[in-house]
DNA sequence: AACTTCATTACGGTTTCCCGGAATCGCTTA
DNA sequence: TAAGCGATTCCGGGAAACCGTAATGAAGTT
């Protein structure tokens, strides 16, 4: 089994549960941290000491508090670790079950498992660790269709950027000017209108407000 | 101390943590459920058996699964319990730290404590139980300004209804007609415009899309 | 009854958004 | 080189939203 495991989660009681199942799996070298920055430092230190971690189990959202963090979220942590320590296995253990978010995480950072916190969360996590140890990918039943479902697969970064800009209060014309300045194409007002129209059809949104609201609900923005 | 306590939370590991601190507090009659409906039934049964619970510790959000629920969220549970068993002490233990949501919960259902899940969550929960036992109100430091801060206090149900309607894709005119039908006043298009304008000023939103996005972010809708 | 006050409603002009058609550009293929 | 095709851009008319102002209505006050 894994020789050295790190668990990152800011809720003490979650950690407790994870430690319990870890023990059942025969993992006897498990450490826990409550901040992503701590996780990063430990993992780097492990490398320097020639005693690297071989598994990270991490949450996605960490509460902010007085400590300012370089990596405020699990996603930030994963991003940097995937670059610097590509051999480390990463299991995400999060409450997040919105398909778009899960989909982006899996495709962008190519994590080894995605487990949803929930009633069966610990069981699934246990299974996930075993699967990942065998070099297989694991995903919770609950969000497994994040991979297969094609319905919203043809939404690219431009669409997301557009919706984010709208949600932040910019008018379509302002966005157009902004894109022109930043050399983002397409940038014409007409193109923006057309893109929004496409999105509205895809999500059956009746107007732009509705579209942005849906985008927020499904975790797209 | 409390004689009979019920803990409602769908995450097993959270429950584990809560049970631990309960033991430390000298609570030796603590039960746990993973669904709000189960919580409701147990509490009602306690009443019938003349052996009522005197404390409920509950989460707010419960994941949906195959079991269809009459009370899908903690808020639904609290709502009905406050009517039917006003003597029961209720402690909310949730990850939710958005002020508007906390504020509404406290003012509408007059719960006995609000504790944020987080790094210090269990300690605070322990403190909360003690305070509530002494008939005092408890709220986590993190969201304590939900009570004092007046900035958004003059937002009423009408405003929320309006924003919800917008987020669901209705045009202002459609909302006006809908309000007229349902005898909700004010209902004229002009009034709706005015109200939206007031909200935009309060939240420094530059347009309606922005306003709805902010409303979603802060948990107003 | 006349007056004040405040919320609601009505209205008109301006801006933004919405939507379709047509022209242009860039790339591929014949 | 020409033709074809999709993406982008330009344009124009109509709808919805935006914004200020005026009219109406329902209290309570003098």
TrEMBL record, chains A, B:
Q: Which UniProt keywords apply?
A: DNA-binding, Phosphoprotein
InterPro entries, per database record: CheY-like_superfamily, Sig_transdc_resp-reg_receiver
**GO terms of biological process kind:** phosphorelay signal transduction system
GO molecular function terms here? DNA binding
Q: Where is the Response regulatory domain?
A: 4-132
Q: What's the domain of life for this entry?
A: Bacteria
PROSITE patterns per the UniProt record, alphabetical: RESPONSE_REGULATORY
Record-listed 4-aspartylphosphate modification sites: 59
Q: What is this protein called?
A: DNA-binding NarL/FixJ family response regulator
Lineage of the species this protein comes from? Bacteria, Pseudomonadati, Bacteroidota, Flavobacteriia, Flavobacteriales
